[in-house]
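Take a specimen:
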Amino acid sequence: MDSLLPLSLLLLLRFFAPASAYNVRAIFTFGDSIFDAGNNHFNSNCTAQADFAPYGSSFFHHATGRFTNGRTVVDFISEFVGLELQKPYLEAQIEVANGSRKDYPTNGINFASAGSGVLRGTNQDYRVTPLQDQLQQFQNLIDQNHIDRDLLKQSLFLFESGSNDIFNYFLPFDPPTLSPDAYVQAMLAEVKLFVDRVYKLGARRIAIFSLGPVGCVPARALLGAPVDRCFGKMNKMVKSYNQGLDGLVKSMASKYPGAVGVYGSVYSIVQLFRAVPNRYGFLNVSSACCGYGTLGGLVQCGKEGYTMCPNPNQFLFWDYFHPSEHTYKLISKILWSGRQSRITPLNLKALANLTIYS
């Protein structure tokens, strides 16, 4: 049985009133390839791409720049709220600049960039957009009056990032200089700065999603990690980072007056799928549907030599790093209306129903 809401949240909710309709007019998204809706595609200098077949083939029927075969968690949450899917920031920027649209969208913007991390230096040789620059893009739009500040009170802010930082910690050709604990603390320090800045810019509904079990992705085969089980050392760092994110959310009610933060435990959700795959429609929770080599983890989907499974919905993983659309849909449903053991202290549906006055 779920626990009662903590006293701090009950006191905070004195400033809120439930509403019958969803009080979310926009969604602003920050993070990496789990959330990227195509920003990297519109960055001509970026080499981390998914803008080729068979990405997008199961839903959009063409590549959109999303690193899966269809929709992501952000897309499903948008559908649940009743919003059109958000445009990538760089696509909207190009359209405003060339005059094909008058101003930036009012239903939110997706700033996420595949390959990026919470640490500025992560995968910078791929010319990805780090979290700090994503936030600066958002601030620039506010400063230039492209985003109405009143809209922010009726917006949902989604954050997920850190898997690339942790995966790169184990790259054999780039040995780390920090201990695992110090590295995780450096990551968490950046997330705290992000939350602080986005709050000061007007964010009041902030959803922080944990990392999934990164040590279980098929791409671990590239590292020479065990392929008959998950990479324990990597998942240990992931769990430490996730615990820090959980603590950050728990402190938000007292640290950020008027804000409500929620923590989505994606790690435990994915581990549930792996523990009882048949219950969730999976036949394979280890290998990539699309890729090549051991676990399908040695070649990116769509690259030379790749193979593809006949039914992506039966696979937990679409490619060597990323979940399938079916996996994302299941995760989204749990984050939207799941119990407190999966998302705390409120699920996204309850968060979207709050009316914020302060």
